[in-house]
Amino acid sequence: GVQCLTDYGIHYLEDELVELDGIRFYGSPWTPAFNDWAFNKSRAKIDKVWQNIPTDEHIHVLITHGPPKGILDISENMDREIEICGDSALYKRIINHVRPSWHCFGHIHNWGNHINAGTLKLSAHDTNFSNGSVVTDNKFGKLTSNGNIFII
Description:
By secondary structure, the chain is of the alpha/beta class.
């Protein structure tokens, strides 16, 4: 028979919270609509998804597919113009309500000279942000990633 992912220590989080060894993780795969990809919502409707992130207990690690607006999210649009493409509704929910210790995301790869690489901490807020999808990708050709390693 097919074994459950948790039998292997894997927890798939689709708008769910899990506590492991006293650390609370919340994960969500949604991003603002882009092409016709899975787990997309229009920017006008995605705020409803972020309202589901609980605020009654402190979340240590928030995991989303994409970044919040203005945080390690610089890319190019189809016209090769610089674009800050993160989600403003997600940013507002994190800063004003959730305030996780860490927010880990991906989706936006490297741009320019590793401008999205590493972690970021805004001085006025407690959340540390990490873009784990920063890669040397030669425009999505050869993919190599160092990711980010951090200790909670």
